[in-house]
Every structure is written in C-alpha cells, then in structure tokens.
Sequence to fold (703 residues):
Amino acid sequence: MAAHGNSAASAPSAAPRRLATGAAAAAVIAYALITLIPLLWIFVTGFKSPPDSISYPPKVIYRPTLEGYVNLFTARSRQTREYIDSLGPAATWYDRLARKRNMVITGPSRFAGRYMNSVIIGFGSTFLAVFLGTLAAYGFSRFRVPLKDDLLFFILSTRMMPPIAVAIPIFLMYRKLGLSDTALGMILLYTAVNVSLAVWLLKGFVDEIPREYEEAAIIDGYSRMQAFVKVVLPQMRAGIAATAIFCLIFAWNEYAFALLLTSGEAQTAPPFIPVIIGEGGLDWPAVAAGTTLFLLPIITFTVLLRNQLLRGITFGAIRK
Amino acid sequence: MASTTPQAQPAARGPRGFWMRASTLSDRALAWLCIAPTIALLLAINIFPLLWTIYLSFTNYRANQPGREIKWVGLKNYKRILGSEDIWGYMQTTASFVCTTMIIQTALGLGLALLINRNFRGHGFWTTVILIPMMLTPAVVGTFWTYIYQPQTGIFSYIVNFFADVGPLDMIGSVAMAPWAIVIVDTWMWTPYIMLLCLAGLRSIPPYLYEAAEIDRANAWQKFRYITLPRIMPFLMLAVLFRGMENVKMFDMVVELTSGGPGSVTELASINLKREAFEKWKTGYSSAFAVILFVTVFGLGSIYVKALNRVKS
Amino acid sequence: MTIDNANTNGAGRKRRGWVRRGPCETAAAVLIVAGIAMMMQPFSMLLYGYSFVTILTGTLGFVVVSHFPK
Fold:
C-alpha cells in the first residue's frame, strides 16, 4: 500500500520497517512452501515404483519410473514366470515394465473412459450453464424484471442446497426417466448447479458495460437482440471466459452427485480415482498418477484465473 | 429508430426468422425470454426435487422397495431425528469440525493477509502459490491425503517425527487424531479462501486513514483495532459465513479421507445422511434429515446473501 | 399504520421503527444463529429437540421480513 511505502521512506524508523517486511515475506514464503509439500509429494509419487512408494523412511531420491502411469491406464493379470517367458520378448516399453513385476497387460483400464466422462460432462454443462447464464444475466441487468431481487436470491439459494438434500428425489426421478448413469443426466444436473454462479458472475460483467453502447446501436436501427449479440457479447468475452472456467472447475470437482447417481457408463473421475486397486491395497503410484493428471488442468486454470478468483468465489460481489 | 435509412440496414444484414420475430417483441417479453429457461431448469432440477424431499419426509417410503405401499406418517420422522442421541452426536461432531476449522483458518488467513499486505517483492507470485489448494477437487484431495497420512510410510508422520519423536502417527486410524486429520486437510485447502477475502478487505481501506492515525500518534495495535479490524469485518463475516455453510454440508473430502471413522468420531451429519439414504435405504427418514440440514444451511445462506449485498453496496 | 401516523409524531416514529426492515432482519438472523447453536450444542437434549423449530421460524421470518419496506 502506498501509505506504507511513503511513510517508510519519510519516517526515521525505516530500517526496522524494512526488517518487518522481510520477516513478513519470510513467513508468507514459508507458508507457501508448506502448502506445496503435499502437492509435490503426490507429483513425485506418481513416478515411483510401488515398493518405493511404501518404503520407510519415505524416499526422496529414487529411480523414477513410469510404472504408476502404466498401471493407471492398463489392466494387468499376474502370471507365472514360465508363462511370461513363453510369450516371447515384450513388444513395447510398457509391456516390459509390466513383465518385470510378473504381470501381463490384458487391456486398457477404465481410467481413460472416466477421464473422458469428466471432460464431456464438464464441457457440456459449462456450455449450457454459460449460455443460459449469459441470457439471464443480460435480462436481469438491462430489463425491468418484476421481483428481480427475489429471483436473484432464489437463483443463488439453489447453489447453497446440500447435494444430499435433493439427491434422493433426483435419484428417483432419474430412475423413472431413464437418465440415471447417463452423461445427459449429469450434464443437466451440473448445469443446474452451475447456472446460479454463471448468472451472478455474468450479471456483474454486464453491469460493467455502459448502457450507452447499446442505446447508440438501437438508435442506429438495431433491434434489442441484435444490439445484445453485436455490441454486448463482444464486450463480455473476457467475463464469459472467466465464468466458463469457474463452471468447468466446479463441474470437474463435483463428487457427491457423481458418487450417488453414476456407477458405470457416465461415472466421472473423482469417484473412480480412490478405487484404483493394486495388489494388496491401493496402488499408490497409480493413484498419484491419476491425481496428477486430474489436478493439473485445475492448477493451470487457477494460475491463469488468479486475478478473477476473488470475484468468482464471492459470486461477483467483490470485483477487485 | 424512426429514421428510415438505418432501419433498412439491419433488416438487410440481420439474420431472418428468430431475430426478426425477436425484434418485434416488447422489452417485457424479451426479459422473460432471457430469464425463463434458467428459472425453468432450476425449478425442474432443484425446486421440484426439494418439494419431493419435503413430501417424502412425511412418509415411510423406502426407495429400494418401490412396490411397497407409501404410508403418510406425519411428523414421526422429524420426531425420531430430533429425539435421537446419535444424530445429536453427529451434529456435535459437525459443530466441532466447523468451529475448529473456522477459528484456525480465520487466524491463519487474517495473519497471512496482513503479512501479504506489506507488499514485499514477489508477493503476487507467493499469493498465487498459496491459493492453489482452494480450487482442487475435495474428493481427490481426501484420497491423496490418506497416502500422506499413512502411519508407517507417510510423509506427514515422517515430518512430525523429524521434529518431535512421537513414533508412527496414525492420523486416520486413531480416535484421538482422526478429527484433527480432517481439520488439517480442511485448513490446508481453505485458509486461502479466508486470506483472499481479508486481503480484499485490507485493499479497500483508504491509505489516508492510516496517515491520519499516524499524525495522532496511534500505535500499531490501535491502528489495527480501530481502523483495520472494523474495515475488514464485513469481508471476514462473508468468508466465515460461506465457509461455515460449506462445512456444515461437508461431504466429499471427509468421505474419502476417513469415511466417518474410526467408529463414528468423524461422522459428520451429511455423511450419516448419505448412509441412511443410500446404504440403509430409509428414504422417508433420511428425507426428513435432509430437510433439517437444508433449512439449517438455507438459514445461514440467507444471512450470507444479506452480507453479500451489504459488502457490494 | 394509518392510525400510527395520526398519532403524535414521536410515538408514530417509534412504531414505524419496529416494523422497519433492519431490526427485524437482525432479530430473524439472531433466531437462526441461536437455532443452529441449539442444534449443535453438546449440553441439553431438550434444546436440541427444539432447535429445528427455532431455525425454521428464523428462516421463514427472515424471508418474510426481507420484503418489508426499508
């Protein structure tokens, strides 16, 4: 802040102040590094061999291997040494990795499919939520809507609903409509969860665009809708992008509905990652590999969005 | 609008059909056209199921026996829940989880925000690093912390033993430590949330207030007590309300980390609700439980929206 | 309200103050928080039994009160 800088320069106590700032920096950096330890640990575990991952003391220096990733993406079966020797030389590097553990790769695992489900459901629901949200945000921002505040409150309040409170009837409803365990059902559900955030965030962005632009366009002979499409939408591009990323992250992270309403076909990755089973308990390198692959996109987006985060987590109430 | 030349222009280049019709609609109709789809979706996927939950909460329905006759039982389900020592216990577990996390996170978050607000070189980068856990998938976070918490081989136990020789630390398996296991993970994830809002509060304080205080020879504590604290209070309220609400309905992270165990020391209300609804299939009973939980969160939520609007204006 | 307005000025203002939004909202919010405290306190089963009614009253009250004029 300017006040600190100015007074630090003029006050006689400049040296202790600089010292205090240094201490503050050290404390914050220490906290940030502690925050990073679990994430880095998971990242490095993805490149360990299963025995290395459960060694004591925990190994910081080890021989990296892609076994975790191979185990994540393949289904294997244990075979006798003789049988493996009778197969002839391994054709690929991942075959070779598996055979070192007396395993034979029998096919791809279900992880890729679950990950694709997450992508499809995430993007599908994001697109729908942002589309509906943009329309509604424009409506709320520019027109006189009766009971506007109540409707906005209603929209936001749907987000606060505990998922379990509506999961039972949705489960029954989807069973009746044949939507349970389908991507379409999950897309609709996640759209409903995200549309409240989209409306509130986008309304903030529309409010920031001066009405004069549209009024000028309307005077030029555009209709309301044309003015919206040709004048307002281009101005909202950055806002729409930020909102879409938020919706994508929330759909990506959702777990309760996915756990309760999907089992096979449309299951997303979050309920699947914890049940990646190895021999004798969880296969930690494979779990860590799956976790890394699943969290990497979110970390990237978080870093990209860092200046919009505050806005996103307060539903657009706090702008800066 | 009235002049002829510009009116001809968009008609020539504008797309036909829908837009032509849309251009003749009144503002009122357009407004509803914009808003109605969203409202309809929310009514279908949120409000209709909610009403259904409320209806089911007065019945003895069981979803795994669809053929069974549905009987209206009045307030019996509610009476059972509000008279059950077990559920009361789960509520207390939830409360101690919410209170502990809120106190620790507020202290840490506010502290970090005050430190970052000194604007040392590179504070932007380190702030971003601190923010990362906030957006991660709670269920996946819960999963990988079970690995970090492994008593013999986990890094958490190793680091603790590096500083204090306490032997293998079974965070998830021991009755004494399991509540702290979920508190630590929640703190790791959500301290940045409170920090970010506190930081916003600090940035909103005009510098001249501090300059005036300096002229009045106020000491650091007085400046904090009479300028900083009142100014960031609304932001802090917002953060605590929202996090409190989220933690009252906390489900995914704790399910994956401890799934309520050992015994039921980390059995939060919503985890127990899931058990009653989808493992024991007591649909009517758990619907009443769901309604109770919903009203609690909704009550907090309406206060939150109030606070939100206050901060906004 | 009309009768209040016909009253002496001071009394009328006082009566209006009671119906005004701010204090009512605060009261409803206090009721909600009290209900939640009752639900989650570890001391009295009796209080726990009445907690839901308290929260429900507070919440419904809050929704109604927020439609009062400012």
Remarks:
- Chain B has two domains: 4-56, 82-312.
- Residues 4-56 of chain B form one domain.
- Chain B touches chain A through 120 residues (CB under 8 Å).
- DSSP finds 14 helices and no strands in chain B.
